[in-house]
Amino acid sequence: QVQLVASGGGVVQPGGSLRLSCAASGRDFRLYAMGWFRQAPGKEREFVAAIGWSGATTLYADSVRGRFTISRDNTYLQMSNLKPEDTAMYYCAAARRLSSSAGDFLHWGQGTQVTVSS
To answer: If pLDDT is split at 50, 70 and 90, which confidence band does 1 have?
Structure first.
């Protein structure tokens, strides 16, 4: 079993930055691919970014590519040039293989709120 705890959310102005973290623990968690998803009120959960177990391969949603960076250490999600449409609850998750599909992720954290507003 893998346990995930997401943190780092907050309120930021448009154009600002935030860094989310996902603390992982449990058996073999280092062998899992890690990902971030988000869900805004009234919308479906959507993929944001993912990274393979070795850290060598990453995937990004088109909407965040070039603005967000995922890294393996603590599964950081560095978010820059934030926009109001980035406002959502952000969830970290672990999967047996690198994927952008939520169905492939077996373990989920509790979520951390990101609000982008002036």
So the answer is: confident
